[in-house]
Amino acid sequence: MIWLILGLALWVGAHFFKRVAPDVRAGMGDRGKLLVTGLLLLAVVLMVVGYRGAEWEPVYTPLPGMGHANNTLMLVSLFLFGVGGTKGTLYPKMRHPMLWGAVIWAVAHLLVNGDQASLVLFGGIGIWALAEMVLINRAEVWVAPSNGRGIKGDAMNLVGTVVLLGVIAMIHAWLGHPVFLGTYS
């Protein structure tokens, strides 16, 4: 569990760095981007190793059938992750679509995972995303973008979302966690 907590702390710290110490981060230039990228990659490795190696300590029992809710929320989450890249109809209307996607991802996973490590990982990422939005909102006023692809961007995003969900489902199945059963054990 220590690796999971260290990875989560590193993830949060690397993301908050720009918001908490903007002058220091700006002074680092491209080296700072490289450093943050390296720290984030290390954080992901630590979180995966920590989560996979954590003892299973039950905290609550997920309700039957929550896998279906999880899968639906994952579609929404993945779609939100793509909003900024595909610039569909939500692009000029929604601030922080990727961070909202992370919050929905966290909630989706907490619906089907009731163990301590899941609470730390998914709950921690969800809380980080909410805190990140607060920090960004305090630091800068949002100017809604006026450009975008409209429905064409949404169509691109939807195709990418479905393909990515398929890839994620295959990876989960390969790891022994099939995602389309409806109820997990």
Description:
The protein contains 6 helices and no strands. It is mainly alpha-helical.
Which regions are unreliable across 5 or more consecutive residues at pLDDT < 50? none
What sort of overall outline do the alpha carbons produce when their principal axes are compared? globular
- Cα(first) to Cα(last) distance is 21 Å
Fraction in helix: over 70%
Number of strands: 0
What portion of residues belong to β-strands? Answer: under 5%
Quickly give the structural class.
mainly alpha
User: Can you give the mean pLDDT?
Assistant: 93
Rg, rounded, reads 18 Å
The number of helical elements comes to 6
Main sheet? Answer: none
Write the H/E string, N to C: HHHHHH
List keywords for this structure.
185 residues, mainly alpha, 6 helices
SSE diagram, text form:
Elements: H1 2-20, H2 22-53, H3 66-86, H4 97-112, H5 116-139, H6 151-174
Helix pairs in contact: 1-2, 1-5, 3-4, 3-6, 4-5
Entry summary:
The chain has 185 residues and is mainly α.
